[in-house]
Amino acid sequence: MRDCADEAVQILGGAGYMRGTRVERIYREVKVMMIGGGAEEVLNDLAARQLGML
Question: Contact 50/21 with Cβ under 8 angstroms?
Answer without folding.
Answer: no
